[in-house]
Amino acid sequence: MSTPTILVLGSTGLMGREVIRSLNERGVTPRVLVRDPSRLRPTDEVEVHRGDLRDPAALEAAMRGVDVVFHISPHEADEVALAQTVIAATERAHARLVFAGIHIDAPNRLAKWAMRTVYGRLLPRYRGKIAIGHLVETSNTNPVMLGVGNFMQCDEVLLDVIRDGKFVLPTHPKGLNRVDLKDLGDIAANVLLDPGTPAGAYPVCGPRSLTGKECADTWSDALGTPVEYVGDDDEAIDTALTAHLTGYRLDDWKSSFRALRGFAVKTKQSELDATTRLLGRPPTDFTEFVRRVVAEHGLALATKTGADGIPAASRTEGALR
Fold it and tell me: Which domains does the chain have, with CATH numbers?
């Protein structure tokens, strides 16, 4: 079977980069549409098309001969219009659309409408993203929708805040399911390369739900220095996000971070089983993710001598190898 021609949109974002990584690891060179190719990583093996979703001619050129398109809604004020543009272009190209983002699923149309309405009122900032999921679902693109929630990589964006001893991601007392974007990249690559994947919605989840304190304690153990959970402090949240994000993305993150305190996102066995099937292995645990980030960034660990006389940093570094 020949390798499909793949277009990855959002290729310079956190999620798009993981999709490219996973495709490259399989020897596949996807096509990308980017305004500024310098934002691509030096290691990315891609076929570059210059332009963006607001440039109809550039999008049409990038779509030419494409079999399957990967799309994630960008943090933009006109995100719904941009999604409509992508859907229309994908339909004209007779290609498949693989979408990763918020998708409201329920047993029937009435229940889906009711849930979209309720979540839209609870999360007004995410009404556009909820609408996009519905647009993709009802499109003529043989769509595959990967329903995702909170990413572990949010921590990596705020890594210096964590190293300073504060964990600002709010969670409900019953926990929040968290997904490693590397897992999502592998799942997306599996689907993009398999035209036999049935159309429909597929939940993507991590192996367990975590409270903010559990996340903070995991970072504390890996770094060898105290990390305090401060996710109930709006000022701490806003200060951390404002220092790292700008524009519409900043507003989106502020809104979603605060909303997370009001929702318990439990890990369902059925969703975990579905994720494992799509991934071909169990999803990455948060502890494994944290250790990987510590190793990749070469973070200096606090030196504390334990009862055995061995510096804590030495023991942790050995565990990460």
Answer: 6-147 (3.40.50.720), 151-179+208-266+285-321 (no CATH)
